[in-house]
Design brief:
The complex is a heterodimer of chains A (75) and B (197). With 75 residues, chain A is mainly α. Chain A is built from 4 helices and no strands. Chain A has one domain. The longest helix of chain A is centred in the middle third of the chain and has 28 residues. Chain B has 197 residues and is mainly alpha-helical. In chain B, helix 1 packs across helix 2. The chains are: A mainly alpha (75), B mainly alpha (197).
Chain lengths: 75, 197
Amino acid sequence: MTEATDLAEAASSADAGIGLRAVVALRRLLETLEVLQVGNARRQGWSWQEIADALQVTRQAVHKKHAGRWPDKSR
Amino acid sequence: MFERFTNEARDVVVGAQNEARGLGHRYIGTEHLLLSLLHPKRGAAGAILADAGVTAERVRADLQRLLGEPRLGQLDAAALEAIGIDLDAVRAKIEETFGPGALDPPPPARRRGRFRRQSDPDCPPTGHIPFTARSKKVLELSLREAVRFKHRFIGSEHILLGLLREGGGLAAKVLVDGGVNLDDLRHRAEESLRQAA
């Protein structure tokens, strides 16, 4: 069996363990990308409100999650 | 409040700050108070914890486990491939824009509540490190414990009792996860205070 068919099998597998593990991996990728992109936006001068609008969450949510990560320029 | 603290108890508070700094954390949480209590020269509380089988090494290992960063590893790559996402391709695209390794040193993970972590290894905390609400509460409760015992001083046992009474922080979680009976620990600390009195 080739690697490709192995993967195709895994992808279509009804194995909950494989499916759930993929969800975990996706979440990690999502979190990593979000931090990267929010940081990039901040460096480009985006406000928390603008970032929140783009992410379709509240300003409070995005601020609470990310504000501690980068030094505040006003301090 | 601190004027009632014995030198030993002051050392616990200062030590907690050092523990936080050493771990690159930007807050002093109950876990840092616990680590500080476990320091060899912090008096009776350290001995009580040691008797219960709590060691600084194990607490550190547990913290590492609880606060460790989720890393995008090979297992993640395999799991993503299973649903048709090529992590290497994603990585290549991201690195085109953000440079090599953009996905690699995973940024500090978001943590909520007791797991919230505000550390950044690239930017170690300097100067003042604030207490978390819980660890402030622990110190307030240590004062209350002293009042309860009609003690005019606050020692390391009072801080330990405060930690146990607060009961909701990362320190308590590490202790409970390690199989420590908090009630038993409380009794031992109270007994130690009674004997000292």
